[in-house]
Amino acid sequence: MSAPPRVRSVDSSDREFRSVLCPAGNKLQQKPVSKPVKKPLAEKTKYLTFTASPTKKMQQCSSLSPSILRRNGISMTASYSSDASSSCESSSLSMASTSSGKRTLRRNGSSTLRKTLTDERDEKAGGSGDCFSDGRKRCAWITPKSDQCYIAFHDEEWGVPVHDDKRLFELLSLSGALAELSWKDLLSKRQLFREVFMDFDPIAISELTNKKITSPEIATTTLLSEQKLRSILENANQVRKIIVEFGSFDKYIWNFVSQKPTQSQFRYPRQVPVKTSKAELISKDLVRRGFRSVSPTVIYSFMQTAGLTNDHLTSCFRHHDCMTKDETDN
């Protein structure tokens, strides 16, 4: 098939030749509708930048803004944080303050209720006088079911100022024995202790030997361990030296409290300490002198028993009696 003939355009100025597209010869043909040309990807992206959704637009602006702002020497942190989160921060702060306030109120309320319940429980434990036959209130560690010797020890001895060297050494030795026996057991065997240790005469005990005190003929092994027995002998030797130095053990030990018992004002058992700074001071000095089994807790128990401190609860009838006894002695 031969190529279509070429003809000149009617317009003389147009020198372009046009091909005949059909057998109609030189008849003017209508130009076909041209199809849309696909635009390059870069051009499409350019148009999408302006027609994107507000969310995408904000993201794109935020990704472009730092570089632009850095070029211009402007920080974007303050503007974004102040504009975008001012309302959120205020709401979150108000919610946080409200929740913390509720927690504080709940905490204060629960602590107040707990303290009230504890005080009421301690008040009952501090001495239920109606439970005793004599109608007197006593310290919490004494109950109507306690042994009679234990009740008598509380009512007659505990907290009463002692100034006799033998009695002071006895109470110091019994306080050191609390690591192995309770006060109830010690009081039940008290007479046997006095027989074995010669009525707790420190001078007489210092003349005993370790071999004699631990011999099978003396029933000391049924009372305390050999370590505690040896500590009593050693403490007797040190008390003898103190008597030579100060004139009496009474004068030495009462010098730590200025010859006057400490009057405590404890309402509840939980307020009574197991040791004090004064007990630590006495313990340190005794250890320096060669005493054994004289820890601060042992010394404070000795101070309570010997009346160097009056730790009877204020609701106990013995609290006032010990105060009166001290005033009478002075």
| Radius of gyration from the alpha-carbon trace, in angstroms | 50 Å
Per DSSP, what share of the residues sits in E-state strands of 2 or more residues? under 5%
* N- to C-terminal distance: 150 Å
Which series of helices and strands comes N to C? EEHHHHHHHHHHHEHHEH
Strand numbers in spatial order across the main sheet: 1-2
Rough shape? globular
The counted number of beta strands is 4
The DSSP helix count reads: 14
Question: Structural class, from helix and strand content?
Answer: mainly alpha
Report the sheet with the most strands, covering strand number, pairing sense and barrel closure: 2 strands, antiparallel
Which spans have pLDDT < 50 for at least 5 consecutive residues? 9-29, 42-97, 125-130
Output mean pLDDT: 74
Keywords: Metal-binding, Zinc
Protein name: DNA-3-methyladenine glycosylase I
Organism: Cardamine amara subsp. amara
Biased composition (Basic and acidic residues): 116-125
